[in-house]
Design goal:
seven-stranded mixed β-sheet; 29% strand; 6 helices; five-stranded parallel β-sheet; alpha/beta; 316 residues
Amino acid sequence: MTTSHTPVDDHLDALVIGGGAAGLAGAVTLARSRRSVTVIDGGAPRNAPAEGVHALLGMDGIAPAELLARGRAEVARYGGDVIAAEVRTAEIDGDGFVVTLEDGRRLRSRRLLVATGAVDALPEIPGLAEQWGHGVVHCPYCHGWEVRDRSIGVIASHPMFTHQALLFRQLTDDVVVFTHGVDPTPEQRAQLLARGIGLVEDGVAAVVTADGSITGVELTDGRVVPREILTVQSLLTPRVQMLAGLGLRVVDHPMGQHVPTVDIGGRSEVPGVWLAGNVTEPSAQVGASAAAGTMAGAQINADLVMAETAAAVAAM
């Protein structure tokens, strides 16, 4: 982490809650606009289990921790701060905001960028969570190339399982779907059959591993279907419980839940609060999250410029 050179109780232009790709990109944009900005980083990135970040132009394969370290350094280079801390509460305070950290510190800012990300909820199958980010993947664009031509099993625990199975079928001709609480529709069955995707409708009991790698899927009748890689659609829950004082609205999404925005720049339904990354767009990869953070940072700066201009005109 960078060391803070701005007193944490200063009235900042912006506070960024969340130190992932979205939050850091937003902070860099604000700092480059000569805004006083502090990032509060809880240190629990969603992609921490992954070996590398893929489909990120110019940095394909970079380790998640290395990418974030570079981002923190960039924030510091332009005069911003990153502090390692957990947020306890966030509240509206007049025309700004007060964020209280777990250690009791209080930070004040004129605007907020919420980039807290989301938490993955996986089906409760023994052995599945332990392989998350390695032998168990979810995104064909993040991990597909790395598992090409291998035997892949799709755990059908979500109605979108067919979409996932068809995308991974583009990468290998050995795909098997395991129903796990989802009954395929006639249309889905026809799609799987047409693409040569196997369908196993016996219940899933556990993920079988050997020497740290997946070797198969154990069914409830004791049979084991050999597989090397599993893919599953997790359900995402935005990390906003500690921000209840802001009044952000959490709504259902096909991939779980999210906090909606009111425009493409990331403006939330709460005046003065912007959103970026998986907290509002569950399907966003690292590149898309960073782009959203950059857009939100630019919009926050523009909003502050207009507020300052209005105040200057009124003072004439």
